Each structure stands twice: as C-alpha cells, then as structure tokens.
Predict the 3D structure of the following.
Amino acid sequence: MRRLLVANRGEIAVRIIRAARDLGISTVAVHSEADADALHTRLADVAVGIGPSAASKSYLVADAILAAAKDTGADAVHPGYGFLSERASFAAAVADAGLTFVGPDAATIERMGDKVAAREVARAAGVPTVPGTPGGVADADGAVAAADDVGYPVMLKAAAGGGGRGIRVVDDAEALRTAFGQASNEALKAFGDGTMYLERFVTRARHVEVQVLGDGTDAVHLFERECSLQRRRQKVVEEAVSPGISAQTRDAMTAAAVSLCREAGYRSAGTVEFLVDDETGEFFFIEMNTRIQVEHPTTELVTGVDLVAEQLRIAAGEPLRFAQDDIVRRGHALEFRVCAEDPEKDFLPSPGNVGRVTLPSGPWVRCDTWLEPDGKVPPYYDSLLAKVIVWGSDRTEAIARSRRALAEFSVSGIPTTAGLFAELLDQDWFASADFHTGTLEQWLATRGENA
Amino acid sequence: MPRHEVVSPIPGVFYRRPDPGSPPFAEDGATVTEDQSVGLVEVMKSFHQIPAGAAGTLVEFLVDDEAEVDAGQPVAVVETG
C-alpha cells in the first residue's frame, strides 16, 4: 500500500490521514464543494473535488470516488464510518477496480449487514442471540405466532435496518398487528426491504460492544466499550471498559466476539455489539459493525493499539501482529461526542459560522476534530464537531479529568452540546454507572421539566 | 391580496418533495392550509417540514429545489384573503 484514498470527511478523514502518514503511506482526500478548504482536504498529500456539497452528490457517489482514485494513482481506499463504509457494492467496486478496500470483503459486509444472516453466523459460533425469530417473519399473523413463543414485550426490527429506524416495541398481540404493517412499510421505504424480525425486548439493557481485529484466519479482541448513554438510539457518551459488567461477563463476551469473528473469517477491524440484560447479566449478540467506529479511540487509549493503523496493515495483507495475551488494558477512557446542536432547543442542529475555537488538550486528553477557528459548520453533513476522549488510571480519575477537558472546550458562534456533558458528569447515576440504554433520555426529559 | 412569506426557521437544504420519488408537497397555484407542508429542510441529516403558516394560494417559490437556505429566509409566498 503506497497511496491511500480516504473516502470520507470530517474528523474520521483527518484521523485516517494521520494514521496513514505514521505508516509512511501517502494520502488522497476527496471533498465536496463545501469541504474545498476543510482540514482533511488540506492535510492530505493530494485533494480531489468530487462534486457538489450534498453528500448524495459527492461522498456517496462511488463512481466519482473510484475515478479520483484512478486519477491520483491510489492503490487503496479507506471508507471511514458512515457514507459508503458498509455498502458491499462499494467494497466490490473497489476490488473490481484492482484497488485494496480497507475493510472486510464485500461478501462479509453483506452477510454481517443483514441482521438475520448475522444472527445465523452468531448461532453457528455458539454466541447467544436475543431470543427471537431465527429468520424474517412473513406477515402480522406470523409475527403474532412468533411473539407467543418469544414472550412480550417484543421488539420489531427491520432486517436491513440501521440507525434506529424501523423499530417498534409492543406489549401485546393487538399492538403487534398494528405496528407490523407500519414498520414494514417504513423499512421498505428506508432500506428497500420490508423484511421484519422479532426479538425479546430487554427493559433494562446495557449496550456493550467488543472491538475485534481479524486477519481472516486468526482474531483477537481489544476488550469492550459501553455505549449505553444514547439519545434517539444514537450514542452520546462511550467508555472503555464497561463499568457495568462483571469480570466473568467480560471474559465470556470477549471470547464470544472472537469466536464469531473466526466463524465469519473476519478480516479487518470490527465491532461485535451485545445487549446486556442488567437484571440477569445475560448478554446477547445484536449485530456486527464491519468498519471503524466513532468511539474507537476509547479502546485505543486503554490498549495503546492504533486501530486505524492495524486496519491498514491487515488490508495490506499482513497477519495480525498480536496474540491475545499481548493486548493488555490499562485504566479507563471516556469519549464525549460534541455536536453542533442546541440542547436547550431539543437538540436542534445548528450549522453556521464559528469564530473562536478552543480545544481541550493537556495530559491524557485527546480531541479528534476537523473544527478550526473562523470556519464554517456546513448544514449538509452530520453534526459531530469533535470527540473529546479522556484517559484516567481509573474511572473516577477519568471523570475528574473529563470535567477539566470539557470546561476547556469552547466554540463561539454556534451552540454545542459540550456544556451539557458537564452537567451529566455531576449526576450520581453517572458516577456510579447505574444506567441503561433508556437513562440518558429519561434524564434529559427530567432536566427539561426542571429548566 | 395580502402576501404571507413562508420562512424556513432553520438553515439547511430546501426540498419541495418529501423524497425523490414523490410528487411535490405543493405546486404553484395550489390552495394550501395553514398547517400544510410546502417543503422540507434537511439540516445535518435531520428533516424538518415547513408549514405554509397561512391559508391561501401558493403563488410562488422563492428558492429552487435543493437550494441552500438560511434561518429566517423566505422560501415561498402564499396569497391570503
């Protein structure tokens, strides 16, 4: 691998360019009109405009990206997260063009991206899945019959879903009949596939995920992250390792993730997501993300492994450089997603011009961002401004240091969510890690009433 | 005729259709109610419908489909009364 095209923007494009540079790989940035002067565009060795500002006309146009790769002599493509990162057809097109795709092959992306197929892989690997239907259910009658076996409440989910869309939780057969048609139609519109399946709904669930690396033959885990603090099913704060599971659960869950990775012949960095029943300690496989994730730095801070660099090495054909025993965790890391949203106006997205920018730094604080002073936050893309990632020798120290780091974060001109995190850090339930996937929204609702 | 300007409350990209495969929310010359959507603004991957804000006849759009708009920018005109 000599020249890498980064098919993305924002903080992850900057992050990938830096890892490539550390490995002596030259970089090509692609950019939309809105990003002509963006940090990733300027940091790369070569930059190519690929279309208008709307992502659908630039970052999502596979042909434009492949043409840019050809024109600049790139021999590899890193898709980052979002955009084309989990589109099997893109991975196939990259390979067909004779280039290296930094990620698993198209067939693996396709298999793990189909939730029904992914559950079958998990079962074959002996990994527990949420009690539910083994395949898609054909219609409302089939769903009701299946739910009788699974037990209410049940969650209806789209087989091709993502980002929390196409999901319904129902308490009884009547509600299930009503919800089925709506959810299936929604899934058909959003994903082009109306196939639905059913799962038991866990009332107090933690979202815990295991970072894995595989080279197609061997696989290792890099421990887990807890991502239970979510708003509208989008992660807001993540930490490594999980403060909410026992050592026994950790051992079993990480072993399960490695088994699944081996069963899939997985080759790249990936994340195996689990739901943990906070009342029973049971864990269940939910899905696998076949890409680098937004919260990957928390794992990097507790293991000292550069996950993007490892992705690049594996894509270049190198075998894993680690045996499981080589991966040692140390301390605790927290990540806060600072977004251009107004928490006082129901998180209204807030693009615009920014003036002064002060980013946190100092001992054991990392800030991954594309934000610069006197820049513009465009309305076309997601609202993530920066990730503030903090390490401490234990969780208490990480929390204290997070207070310091977040207090330093300041952007003039637009509202951000940075201030909200300071409040969050002061909550007793946060300090004691007594939370589940519904806690953040419950707290935000209470906070709104008290304001 | 009194003219009511329909204003986008947020910055983003203005769309006249709910999705690329659907007809426009409202054609020029259509009769609209106060609550009826005349467009959609996409901002940072979230979508916000823009209601007419007044009942009457939608006489013109002031911005093109898929144009970038600012908060407070008029996007269409409704003749009331």
